[in-house]
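To assess whether the prediction recovers the assembly geometry, we first specified each molecular entity separately, as shown.
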Amino acid sequence: MTNLSKFAVPTEEPGQTSDRTPHGEVETPTSLLVRFPASEPLQLECGRQLAPFQIAYQTYGTLNADKSNAILVCHALTGDQHVSNVNPVTGKPGWWETMIGQGRPVIDTDRYFVICSNILGGCMGSTGPASLNPATGTPYGIDFPVITIGDMVNAQARLIDHLGIDQLFAVVGGSMGGMQVLEWAARYKDRVFAALPIATAARHSAQNIAFHEVGRQAVMADPEWCQGRYYAQGVVPRNGLSVARMAAHITYLSEEALQRKFGRNLQDRDEKTFSFNADFQVESYLRHQGSTFVDRFDANSYLYITRAMDYFDMAAEHGDVLANAFWGTKTRFCVVSFTSDWLYPTRESRAIVRALNAVAANVSFVEIDSDKGHDAFLLEESEFFDTVRGFISAAAQKRGLK
Amino acid sequence: MTNLSKFAVPTEEPGQTSDRTPHGEVETPTSLLVRFPASEPLQLECGRQLAPFQIAYQTYGTLNADKSNAILVCHALTGDQHVSNVNPVTGKPGWWETMIGQGRPVIDTDRYFVICSNILGGCMGSTGPASLNPATGTPYGIDFPVITIGDMVNAQARLIDHLGIDQLFAVVGGSMGGMQVLEWAARYKDRVFAALPIATAARHSAQNIAFHEVGRQAVMADPEWCQGRYYAQGVVPRNGLSVARMAAHITYLSEEALQRKFGRNLQDRDEKTFSFNADFQVESYLRHQGSTFVDRFDANSYLYITRAMDYFDMAAEHGDVLANAFWGTKTRFCVVSFTSDWLYPTRESRAIVRALNAVAANVSFVEIDSDKGHDAFLLEESEFFDTVRGFISAAAQKRGLK
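The predicted structure of the complete assembly is given in tokenized form:
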């Protein structure tokens, strides 16, 4: 009997899936799940096929009669499908709850039907490295195929097919969510009326890759990673994943935000202890970020998702010309960056805008003045909210939505 | 019998030191060493005393008759005393060899007597956590006292006393070396004719502390750290220290430099491998940086030195007014920063300059245009070299040096 981690959402047993209704829809206590049987594999960019696979998702609001009010929200590296209301797993508000929900000013779910799915490779119900490998009956671990942002989007497209939606009114996402938005617009040109890539980039820079590699090495250096087979050992690489999260977390905040929030303030003490205790608030904060992350995230998912981001390079996929990715697009774009985001700085957004301009796309671009760093896209920044609301409203009018 | 690591430079046996000549001078194959006996302890800022202790150092050039041509060079976090010529330990050029040496254009050792000592807490011969604790006869490990930049400078002052030098013509250093320069100027006002703090700050910011804390947690998470007692176990926390170095190394380079140097180039392959191999050059480079660092540096020294840097806050030591640190100074200062240094950005240098201006100090400030990031201070940048040469020449003239 394999000792499954809490992240292991068992896929169906091999041999059983083909007898079932395709696209089996299941409601779990925390999410909706769509299961694609072995007969409907997902073709991956690495050349392998994934089957069976499942996508966990949430919806908010009601799909209108002509299915024209659907907004797909794409989550970031460590996000999940619980974009609004209360996250039933953590008990905390959904990660974009201030922006999206019933009566919310930016995306009101009384008007729009919002869909958010856990990404392929994730650990919140969608098939990932903690899922059972039908070939062995044990969790994939690092036998899980290395996936790409494009694979994630293709899996989402299968969900959207399942929901019977031809064209999404909008695809919205920040950070890695924004990369998915770009892939959606490039791969499914007729299926995206409006696209909002936020605080993102069309490729991972050397520095982006470098930070991710530090995180992966931290995880893999932890003996409890067990070459990726920790599920069966009843352990998790806590220390390694915690260090990875700490390093990454620094990149999500601006230097100014860290200074303002913590400065050199001491934590619960008046004097330095002349020790390696967490004397400084910023140390205590980072340690807390690291340790709580381990409780909610699967270490192998972290490896696979960071790898997908590092592999992301839309220009390289289109003859080294980013504009080629968007050739012939009719989608209207709103590209948003934040002044103090040093993870995906404004120049990365400008590169996207230039590519869209080169194909005469309908594009607006706004750089939001914020000193909060990359994570500003998750915060209630009024200029940011106004920008998104304005763009969505105008697009809705154009689309003829009531 | 304790299994000493290669970093353990045994201090003298307890009880033997007091019989010897004070300040015993020893020449090892790789360095000069001055040993301060148990009767001459170093008072530390944590309240403890360190005794005996030793300082390993190198000199270049000849001290003139009136001892007025001595330049103390202070090294950075992972530097050493081998500032010029060939480092006899690594076989590589000294770390500032392009700037300092016989016939070198910036600091010519035919004219100046250059001294560089391994910092207290280091692992290149000066007393540090790998040294023998006289109380136990085994390496200190984490029983070594937590030291400060001020302690490092006080230890250096003992070396300068030993060399019979009243006033240093100049104290020069970059990064943590610059912090030592500032402490020298503040603590020994009459002993520093000219001071060059380069690519540095008068305090560690929240982001600086955060990156160091990630590195320390990576080391301490490695089971082979053995609570700091790895010397006796015949192991070293390779993986943890390597991850720490990788994370730190990213902060030493600008995003532009990483992009130009590596971009998204693949390492020895034409295609992505869809694996966790080091597909990208930047990954391979970082892994190499990590693994070679472990061969030359002691993990506990890394913990102690990063802690000293985090504790560094000159304003806090002077009633929260940085200018107070320099009250009454007669030293002439040259403060240098680099445009793309995001570890110690120009605003930190400006804070130093403002404080010096507030006490009407003789100060020049130059921000060097460079896209190479923090490590630019180690590189042959002509504007930087011209600045230092010009300042040193003018100061030498003022000092009446031939």
